[in-house]
Amino acid sequence: MELVNEKALLTWFHEKKVSQTVLDTIRERYGTITSYIASGERMGIKEDALLQKPPSADEAETLLADLAARGIRILIRGEEGYPAPLAAIPDSPLLLYAKGQYDIQDELAIGVVGSRKCTAYGAWACEMLVRELAQYQITIVSGLALGIDRVAHDAALKYHTRTIGVIGNGIDKIYPASHKGLYAEVEEKGLILSEFPTWAQSLPYHFPFRNRIIAGLSLGLLVVEAKEKSGTMSTAGHALAQGKDVFCVPGNLNSIYSAGCNLLIQDGATLVRSADDILEQIAILSLQRKTAKKQEEHALSEEEKQILTAVRTGPQTPDDLVRMTGIPVQEIHTFITLLEMRGLLRTASGLCHLTQ
User: Fold this and answer.
1) CB of 32 within 8 A of CB of 6?
2) What residue spans define the domains of the chain?
């Protein structure tokens, strides 16, 4: 047969409704789709007739060129550009459609998921936690859906950290339609991924597949709000199956949108009060935080450095800091506030504490 680029061939057949499972099975047995076709063998599956009628090289390459013209790249597992964390899970997709770029920084990612009908409390908690994670340039992964997903992406963009949207339909289709602007901004400043062919509609059975990708791209999963039986709980199940840490925002006992979180906490998930609860549990993110704080300290004023040195000996009141540093009392609160804004200091019960 005419030699056809393997990526182009995989994309062609997937767009023609050959499932990724079938394509993966063929590659496991024969090495490449080309080898299977050349063998003349049959696997006894309904797709056999289609697989025995491969496209010409021109047809297959034209398809890839058309996708590229629409800003769509094809990522194949095992090839350059495919997200390394996702490739490490047992059921990673063979083929991904991508808009935007996957960056090495995206390997430091936290998945953020929750209810589509989130409460005001859930939205507040989500934005607060994403804001804190963004201080350390941690990528936020979510599903570009309504509710918590929307809040998570918006907060990542607002606080200038990268974000990845994983969708349960063709990458050209925007669902819900109201997210057109968000979709464009995530594509421009982060990445959108789908394992479904471009023509695929958003269907309920697609979302468990999407959920495993959200978990697979992430070092840990933050669940902000969830009903006891929900897609969010499905994502948490995938994260646990992949050996990932699950973090939960606790909620009211009488809220159906916190029932899932409270149940996960009861079963051993980590209760989250601030991003520190996440950062402290994942070693590489803890190191990222320490490195960022050290870099930031180099840019501090002498007064700020003096205050941090004093607080390293133990929690101090503002009056203690005046005495220990010699900074005028009318200035000490300004420097404390600046250090709090940098995330290096926090105050509680009238005492200044280090955040690390």
Assistant:
1) yes
2) 1-69, 104-284, 300-354
- Angle, helices 20-30/6-15, rounded to nearest 10 degrees: 150
The number of C-alpha atoms within 13 Å of 258 and in the hemisphere containing its C-beta is 15
Convert 41-71 into a string of H (helix), E (strand) and C (coil).
CCCCCCCHHHHCCCCCHHHHHHHHHHHHHCC
Give the model confidence (pLDDT) of 287-299 as tens digits: 777 767 666 666 7
- Residue 206 is classified by DSSP as G
Cα→Cα distances 297→76, 293, 308, Å = 42, 6, 9
Q: Any idea which residue has 């980590």 for tokens?
A: 270
Question: How many CA within 13 A on the CB side of residue 265?
Answer: 19
Phi-psi region of 350 (alpha: psi -120 to 50; beta: other; left: phi over 0): left
The class level of CATH for 104-284 reads alpha beta
Structure tokens belonging to residue 135: 């201080």
- Spacing of C-alpha 41 from chain mean position: 41
Q: Judging by DSSP bridges, how do beta strands 345-348 and 270-271 pair with one another?
A: unpaired
Q: Which top CATH class is 300-354?
A: mainly alpha
Amino acid letter at 134?
Answer: A
Task: Specify whether the CB–CB gap between 133 and 155 falls below 8 A.
Answer: no
User: What is the pTM assigned to this prediction?
Assistant: 0.81
With a CB cutoff of 8 Å and minimum separation 6, the contacts of 271 are: 247, 248, 250, 265, 277
Convert the pLDDT of each residue in 9-30 to its tens digit: 999 999 999 999 999 999 999 9
Instruction: Tell me how far apart the alpha carbons of residues 232 and 224 are, in angstroms, rounded to a whole number.
Output: 9
